[in-house]
Amino acid sequence: MPANPFDLAGRTLIFTPDGRRKYSRAVRPLGWDPEDRGKRYQKSAEIKLQNFRFPFSGRKWESFFISRNWLITFGKAFPERDPVRFGTMRMYVDTMLETPAISALYKPYLTGTVYVSDLPDRMVITYYARDDRMAVFGQRPRQTFDFQTVLHSDGRVAFNYGSAPSAPDEAFRDGIVGLFPANLTTGAEVTIRDSGTDLSRPESRSSEVQSEVFHYPAIRDRGEGVADLSCRIIEVLGDEFDFFAFNSQSRFDQQETGPAHGFGGYYWGNIQAEVEGIGIRGNNTTPCQSRLKNSWGFPVWMKARTVVNKAHSAYGYRTPYDEGLTFFAHEIGHTWVAYASYMMNGERVPMQVEGNYGHWALGLHSPAPFPWHGPENGSVIGGASWRENPDGTFTPTVGWWTKAGGFSWLDLYLMGLAAPEEVPDMFILRNLLQLTSGRAGTYTGEQEIITIDQVISALGPRKPPHGEARKTFNMGFVYFLLPGQTPDPELLREHADYRDRALDHWRHVTGERGRLTTEIP
Predict the structure, then answer these.
(1) Entry pTM
(2) Among residues 459, 476, 509, which one ends one of the domains?
(3) In terms of domains, do 179 and 276 share one?
(4) Quick one: 127 and 236 in the same domain?
(5) Contact 465, 276 (CB under 8 A)
(6) CB burial readout 143-176, b (16+ within 10 A) else e
(7) CA distance 342 to 350
(8) Which of 159, 292, 154 is nearest to 223 (CA)?
(9) 253 is in which domain, residue-wise?
(10) Would you call 130 exposed, middle or buried from its count of C-beta atoms within 10 A (0-12, 13-18, 19+)?
(11) pLDDT tens digits, residue range 136-195?
(12) Does residue 350 sit in the same domain as residue 453?
């Protein structure tokens, strides 16, 4: 259960300025503003105030910005990209305090439609919100959650919240609500904050910042907190683990999309000390100087994983766990892949997504010889399996998004599971341009052939080579409970079932060349 469940549905929250940059708060029955919804927006935009200047954070503003997730900011737009990837709600609050902001309900992946109505005495911003990427139980919401922000010319701010979605598995159980003026510190004096309180209660001291963060328990310092737990497990059970995967009986406050689908984040381990010629540089080491190669950076909520698995079974996937298994193989694969480059005209040329080191560029032809299912599928690390059309255009027949792929021959070579002579020539499409919409649309691009010799020329030969490389690694599957909890028998069975399927999946997508064990001597 969340620490502070969202309890403002069906209410109106009004913040009234007192003339000294502070606000009092009132909670009333819902007073939905019935005016025409106004102009529709689906992307970030700057909104000009036509009839008045709005007083907030010590200034009177002539415009404001609506971010892609509908946070209202003044002076500059909120970052389009997630500013705190893998962050907790509290980290987002810290980011908001850097820019004057007003939040009726902020979550990093809200989507939907917003309407802005410009009236003589107020601006009415009406939201029809969904959280497609991080629903509470890993499913897209079947309904929208409707709410409004009303900016009055006298500086009052009202939040109107419609009825909560009736289905218990909808997304709107956590988020950030409140007023966040910027520049809160003047010399040694810090502006009074009324934050972390229950905004549904009308009692309030007059304060400049009034906010509530509806959140779930958090893992301390993202991956570092889990690293400490990894060391504790190793201390008790011995240094017998190469990887850890963590599932949790409870949801944690982590806003990356993946936990609903099976991704737990990673910190890099000490694979660099053992392997050369794969493109990873540096001397990262794991906590407690163990043999651990990599680990989930935070736990995956088992309930979300379970619901996603069952939902996907209706789509004809090989097993109901395809979504989570793809992310499982993807993240373990990151231990070796994808950091490679190749030599072209005397220069090293990267093969990754620009600005996203560790994932193959979409234009890389990376078919998987041992896909999880289907006669043809792509690498779970990125790229696609491309088909050249008679007119010289290209179509990605399959890619990592199918949740049914495996590892390409290049992936297997970098992992030590294939000899260099097994890696066929590849190609990459440069200056890729999409002509038709959709992931399987038509593209133009300049085809550039890549050989394994070019890769080895850029990286050096793999050491240890295929014949001497480790093929078997020990994996610990850990099930987290909060203090005082007892294991849920059904979820614990799901955890064990997922473990067995993950081991089978790894054997399959590596062509029976790789093996994960769960044995402790």
Answers:
(1) 0.83
(2) 459
(3) no
(4) no
(5) no
(6) ebbbbbbbbbbebbbbbbbbebbeeebbbbbbbb
(7) 7
(8) 292
(9) 223-459
(10) buried
(11) 555 556 678 899 999 999 999 999 999 877 665 556 777 889 998 875 443 333 344 555
(12) yes
